[in-house]
Design goal:
313 residues; alpha/beta; fatty acid metabolism; enoyl-[acyl-carrier-protein] reductase; Rossmann fold; enoyl-[acyl-carrier-protein] reductase (NADPH) activity; lipid biosynthesis
Length: 313
C-alpha cells in the first residue's frame, strides 16, 4: 500500500494468494476489452485477510477472509485499500488456493451451465478446452446434475493420462479433435441422444466448428474465450438445418447486471462444493518472489502447466 490513511468505509486487506489468469495477461497486453486506468497493478482475482477497518465498515471485521467482488483491484500486491463493497467475505474452511481462484473460472462454468439452456438429467453438453479450469469445473458441475459431457482436448504427449484425469472428474466422453474426425458421427449423435443442447467454446478456429457439429436441433453454442486467437469457423449446414444459436458469455458483464449478494451466494455455493470434495482442480502455488517464472509458465513458455497461484508471505 502507498502509506495513505484509510478513508471512512474503506478496508485494508493483506493479500494471501492471487492467481495469474489469461485475462490478466490480456489486460497487460492491451488486448482485453476492459482496461484499467494506468498506471495500474495486475491481477483481478485472489483472497486476502482484513487487517484494518474504518468506522463506516459494517459487515467486515479484522481477520475475515475476503475475495474481490469488483474487477481491476490489482491483486498482485501485498496490501489493497478499497471500500467495503469491493470485497466479498468467504469462509476459511477451504484451501487457500481454492478461495483465491473461485471467483472467475468456476463462476464462469456455473453461469454457462445455468443461464443459456434449460438442462436436465441425461442432457448433453459438449466443450473444447476441457483441460482448462473452466472445462474441469463444467465436467464436475454437470456430473452433479447427471448431465453428460463430451470433451475435446488437444492431441499431446500424455493424452491418455489427460483423458483418465477428466474421466475421474466425471467426463463421459473425451476425444482429441483428430479422434472426433474419425468417429461415425451419425451413430455417435444417436448414442448421445440426437446431439448436445449446449456447446461451450473457449478456443475458436476449427475446434469451435467441431463443437458446433455435435449440437442437436436448436442447440446453443456459447463462446467465452479465444485461446487459439483464430476466428470461429462456422459450418453453414447446422446454422440452417439445425437452427443453431450463437451466444457469448463474459462474467464481467454478468457482474454488472447482478448484485454483490448474488455474487456472494454463487461463490458460497461453489466453495461449499470444494469443502465437500465435489469440486476440485489442479493449481500450483508459487511464492510471489518467483513471479517472473510463474508468469512465464502461465504464458505457456514452459509447456502445459497448472494454474499459477501467487502466494504472499
Amino acid at each position: 500500500m502507498d502509506g495513505r490513511e484509510l478513508e471512512d468505509g474503506e478496508v485494508c486487506v493483506k493479500m494471501l494468494a492471487a492467481p495469474i489468469n489469461p485475462s490478466d495477461i490480456n489486460r497487460i497486453e492491451g488486448t482485453y476489452p476492459m482496461r484499467p486506468t494506468v498506471p495500474a497493478v495486475g491481477g483481478t482475482e485472489g483472497v486476502g485477510v482484513v487487517v484494518a477497518v474504518t468506522p463506516g465498515v459494517r459487515n467486515l471485521t479484522i481477520d475475515d477472509w475476503v475475495i474481490p467482488s469488483h474487477p481491476h483491484l490489482g491483486t498482485w500486491a501485498t496490501h489493497i485499500a478499497k471500500e467495503e463493497g469491493a470485497w466479498c467475505k468467504v469462509g476459511q474452511d477451504v484451501p487457500l488456493e481454492y478461495a483465491a481462484t473461485i471467483s472467475v473460472n468456476p463462476c464462469t462454468a456455473l453461469r454457462m451451465l445455468t443461464d443459456f439452456v434449460d438442462l436436465e438429467a441425461g442432457d448433453v453438453v459438449v466443450q473444447n478446452g476441457a483441460t482448462s479450469m473452466v472445462g474441469q469445473c463444467v465436467i464436475q458441475l454437470a456430473h452433479l446434475r447427471k448431465i453428460q459431457t463430451v470433451n475435446l482436448v488437444r492431441d499431446r504427449s500424455g493424452v491418455d493420462e489427460v483423458k483418465a484425469r477428466l474421466s475421474s472428474l466425471g467426463a463421459e466422453h473425451v476425444f482429441t479433435e483428430e479422434e472426433l474426425g474419425k468417429l461415425d458421427m451419425k451413430n455417435f449423435l444417436k448414442e448421445i441422444g440426437a446431439g448436445a443442447k449446449l456447446g461451450l467454446n473457449c478456443v475458436g478456429g476449427s475446434t469451435a466448428t467441431a463443437v458446433m457439429k455435435l449440437l442437436g436441433e436448436g442447440g446453443t453454442l456459447v463462446t467465452y474465450g479465444g485461446m487459439s486467437k483464430k476466428p470461429i469457423k462456422l459450418a453453414t449446414g447446422p446454422l440452417i438445418f439445425k437452427d443453431i444459436q450463437l451466444r457469448g458469455f463474459w462474467l464481467g458483464k454478468w457482474k454488472t447486471k447482478h448484485s454483490n449478494e448474488d455474487f456472494a451466494a454463487m461463490t458460497k455455493y461453489l466453495l461449499e462444493l470444494v469443502r465437500d470434495d465435489k469440486l476440485r482442480y489442479i493449481t500450483e502455488k508459487v511464492p510471489f518472489e518467483d513471479f517472473n517464472h510463474a508468469l512465464d509458465k502461465a504464458m505457456g513458455k514452459h509447456g502445459s502447466a497448472p494454474k499459477q497461484v501467487l502466494v504472499f508471505k
